[in-house]
Every structure is written in C-alpha cells, then in structure tokens.
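Chapter review: from sequence to fold.
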Amino acid sequence: MLQYLSINNYALIDTIEIDFCKGFSVITGETGSGKSILLGALQLILGERADSKVIYDKNRKCVIEASFVINSYNLSDFFSKHDIDFDNHQTIIRRETHSNGKSRAFINDCPVKLDLLKAFSSKVIDIHSQHQSLLISKSNYQIQLIDTLASIKVKDHSAQIKLFQSNLYELNIIKEELNTIINDGEDSKNELDYLLFLNSELDEANLVKGEKEDLEKALKSYENSENITNTLKKIIYILDQQQVPVSSQFHEILIDLQKISILDSNYDEIRSRIQSIAIELSDFSKECDLLLSNIEHNNFDFEEATQRLNLIYQLEQKHRVNNYESLREKHNEIKEKVDQLSSIDLHISNLENKISSLNVKLNNTASIISSNRLLVCPEIEDFIINIINQLGINNGRFKVVIEQEEHLNSYGKDQIRFLFSANKGMPLQEISKVASGGEISRLMLAIKALLAKHLKLPSLILDEIDSGVSGEIAGKMSKILLEISKEIQLIVITHLPQVAAKANYHYKVKKIDNSIKNTTIINLLNENERLDELAKMLSGETISIAARENAKALISNH
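The token string follows.
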C-alpha cells in the first residue's frame, strides 16, 4: 500500500508530506484547490513523462517521493530480476525533475529507467483519472480488461497472448521484407543482368596471376628488339668473331702464364684467375648467342599481346583496381551478388512458406485466446450487472459480445464490444451511444470493483469516479467503495459528501493565497474538522445547523 507521499517544488506545491493508511481514504477540496496536482505528482512517481513547466521554483529541482509497503505481494523476484535492492518492510520510489527538463528515477535509491518504473508501479498501484471513464467505450480498453481477468482465471492465457504477439511481429517483418523484394523486383532484374554481363566478361578474360607483368616485359623487349639484337651481336663479335677475338687473346695469355708458372708458383694463382675469367667469358658468349637465337626465331605476336594487355588495363579501369588480386576480389564479389540475386525466387518462396506457417500458428493461438476470453465473460457480465443494480440501475443489462473477424489484429481475431441498456425494453447498444455520464461512472466503478476483487493490487486511487451521480445513488456508491477498501487500500478524490462520510480517513486540499504566489497544502482532518468539511460540502461555505446535523447523520450511518 501507499504509505507516504512527499512532494517538493511541484506546480503550486512548495512542500507537502502525507501519511496514508489502510482502508478507505478520501481527498476533498474546492475546484481549483490542487487535487489534480496531487494526482499529477503521483503519476510522475509512476513513470509518466516529466515536464519542466510544472516546477514551482526554477532554481531548484522538483522531487517527489513515495513509500510503499509491499511485503505481502510476492514482488521480491521482480527486484532480483532487475538487480534492485529489496526491503521487505518498505519500498521507496523517487523522481527528480530539473528545470532543463531532465529527469531521474530511483527505486530504493537504485537508478532505474522509466519503463522499469512503470513496470513496477503497475504492480503496486492503479490510478483512475477522470478522463479514463471514457475508456470503457474503447475497444482496446475492453479487450485489455477481458485479458486481464482471463490471465487470472485461465492458465497460460498471458503466455498465449505473448506468443501471438511475438509471432504477429515476426509475420509483419517477413511481409515487409517480401513486399520490398517484390517492389524492387524490376530493379533487381536489371542489376542481375548487368552483373551477369560483368561476370561473363571476367570469366572469358580468364586472367592469370603475373600475366600483366609478363606481357608488359615482353612488349617492352619487342619494342627494343633491334637495339638488343645489335648489342648481343656486338658482344659476340668482340668475344669470338673479330680479327683477334677476346677469347683467343685470353687463350694466349693462359699459355704464356702456364710457361712462367712452372718457373715460379706465384704466377699460378694469376693463371687460375685468368682461366676462370676465360671460362666465364665462354659461357657468357654462348648465353648471348642463345638469347640472339631466341630473338631471331621468336614467333611473338605483338598485336595479340597488345590486345591482351589492353583488355587487362580496361578491366582494371572498369572495376577501379590496379592489380590482379584486387580484380580477382571484385570478380568474387560479383559472383556472390549474382548468386544472391539469382536465388530471389527461391527466397520469395521461402518467405511465402514462412508466412503461411505463421498464419496457421497465429490462427490456432487466436482461437485459444478467444476461447479463454469467452470463459470469463459470464462472470464479468454477472458482476457488473449486480453492481449497477445496486447503484440504482435496477433494470440495467450488460453484455460482452465477442465476434470473430476475418483478419488478424493485434489482439487475435476478436472484435469485442461492451453492450449496455439502462432501461427495461430497450435494446442493448454500445456504451458510447446510450450511457449517460452518471451511468458511465457507475459502470466504471463496477469494473474497478471487479479488478480490485481479482488483481489484489496494494493501492487503488479513483479520481471523481462518482462524477454525474448524487443523492441516494451517491450513498449506494459509497457503500461499494467501502467494500472495495476491504480488499485493497482505496484513495478517492470526490466532491460528494455521501462518499466522503464513508471513508476511514479524510484529507482536505486547500489553496493558500499570499502576496508572492498561491500554494497548495493538504491536511488530514480530525473529527471536528471533518464534520465541518462535510457540512460545507452539503450547504456551502456558510455552515448551517441543518448542514452540520446532516453531516453528523452521514458519519453515524458509516
């Protein structure tokens, strides 16, 4: 339950500290006194978006803090799962908002994100604001109500809904992918045709590593073949063909050294070196002769080589590379892309099969969900009819209609409608078409009573759920509120003295005018103060004797 609420620097509130108790509490006050401000502060605690405009003093931060007693609601697993310190006696939520719009949230002094704060708050408190009464006629709210109760009554209903929504999300992703592929089909075909051309071009080229360098070398040699030939012939002539060839001269030198080396061994080393040179020159001459022979008998096709080299250059330029390895990588990339695009038809077929399979799963799950919903409808109908009958709609009827749609929606295949009739002989119709404001309030109270019975939330706050009712009906409504408070902590913001009189605790919100700025305060009333407040609610600012007596009577009937 909500144990304590502290509000600092929020809207018209400078500082407020409120202690709450078990049972039934009411909050009253004149219109504009700040009751809705209290509710707004609480909603910040529960994860609603912060607005820097509500900060009372822009020079300091807004801090809202609330403590809850949750030891009997089995929430320790939630704290363990999210690595938050757990105190079995008290859980403190704090929200800080700065003038720059930045905000921070804490659970037991552990920083948390707003999504986590919302998840936790949904387990400890439900706040019904004034505008929420209109939700009763909305399809989404109706479905969520049915599913909330079905999840309590039917095993695995929540799991089935999660499974359905997960499969539906997957289905939509696959459909989107399929539509993209189909819509891009023409572009993909054109791209495939171009890539096939490039791939064929590279396949036909049949490039070889080092080929470009070899061709460049061969062409350079061919272009300088005359100069090379002349040089080789000159070398051969000097070594072996001139009048006195170098080889002959070396031969004569070797003969002479042979003669003197017999006389002195010191000349033998020179002879040996000259002999090595002579052998080397002989080999050199033979090699030059071979090279010359190769040139003279070479069948090199200059035009063919030039065309081949130009092809390599063109391919490198087209693919923006400058070597064999990079061109080969480009070729591999093209092949992979061709394979991908060539398999589009197969990919489309696979996606269509997945869609078909998911549709089967979704329809089966939707049928289970629908059956679960139908199981809880009679109890919901009976409970609400009983409550509205107690609240003066004696001939009131309420019906939950579940119809199967052809196509899937985010909740399955069900279209749910709440039908209502307040008068005998009148047909059941949608709530938005036939229910008055007072009747909507009574229907919503019945729903809140139903939820309180089954959900076992620690706390429930109702903001003017009694709007549009008065007199005897207000008294009956107060009795139902009192019954709800036996199950959970109930805090009601009300203008009705009949409701306020039934409460265990009565708080009054008051706006104080001063020379600087209006401020809002709230106080827990003692018995005399409560009697005066009820009398004012009955007769106005001037308390008459009759009003005071009526107030006493209301309290005594508690």
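Two observations follow directly from the output. The CA atoms of residues 257 and 472 lie 148 Å apart. Residues 189-342 form one domain.
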